[in-house]
Specification:
Elements: E1 4-10, E2 15-17, H1 32-42, E3 45-51, H2 52-67, H3 74-81, E4 84-87, E5 99-102, H4 106-115, E6 120-124, H5 127-135, E7 141-146, E8 155-156, E9 167-174, E10 180-186
Parallel strand pairs: 1-6, 1-7, 3-4, 3-6, 4-5
Antiparallel strand pairs: 2-8, 7-10, 9-10
């Protein structure tokens, strides 16, 4: 069974975007150690799952970086060349390379991907997509990038839980850019 990882930037008070989707508060001036952390967790990944909203910016951004000689590093190529599955109820077809659409039940679709042969799967997404993954107990590893800012309000990812979600801390690591990464593994039982 493949592992589904979540890599997500989060404010100190638990939001992944501002009330109107603002993400200008996120730290992107990453130090080399944080870049290496991301390379390490994505090395075994050979599938990316995304919500439709994030995919519209994510996929074209990585395509542009992979073709630009100034940004075409190994990581940009990996993000661009990895197969992507975009979850959408509204898109009819995908114009993006190496991308398929998942239009069915999220639990069935993710479990189908996890049951296939291959490396790890990583999830990137907006609050509603990631909330659905969390609500249904589909994430095996959480890599939460805690930013040094409190928003006061915004879009959470844990609000749709109907019961407690117990996690096991694997590690915590602080980086000179101000981000603290918390890595948790999900327990074998699933939330209701």
């Amino acid at each position: 069974m493949r592992t589904l990882k979540l890599q997500m930037q989060v404010s100190l008070d638990g939001f992944v975007a501002g009330t109107n989707g603002e993400m200008d508060w996120m730290v992107w001036d990453w130090d080399e150690e944080l870049k290496q952390y991301v390379k390490n967790i994505t090395a075994p990944v050979d599938c990316i799952v995304l919500g439709r909203v994030l995919a519209t910016g994510f996929i074209p951004t990585w395509e542009a970086q992979a073709t630009n000689p100034e940004t075409a590093e190994d990581f940009a190529r990996k993000m661009n060349e990895s197969p992507k599955v975009v979850f959408s109820k509204t898109l009819v077809e995908s114009d993006w390379k190496r991308t398929t659409l998942a239009k069915g039940d999220i639990v069935e679709e993710i479990n189908h991907l996890k049951a296939q042969a291959g490396g790890d799967i990583i999830a990137y997404g907006g609050s509603s997509f990631v909330s659905a993954l969390i609500q249904h107990g589909l994430i095996d590893e959480y890599h939460l990038f805690i930013n040094p800012i409190a928003l006061g309000s915004g879009m959470p990812i844990f609000a749709s839980l109907k019961s407690r979600l117990s996690l096991s801390l694997v590690r915590s690591e602080s980086f000179s850019c101000g981000i603290v990464v918390l890595q948790y593994n999900a327990h074998s039982h699933k939330p209701q």
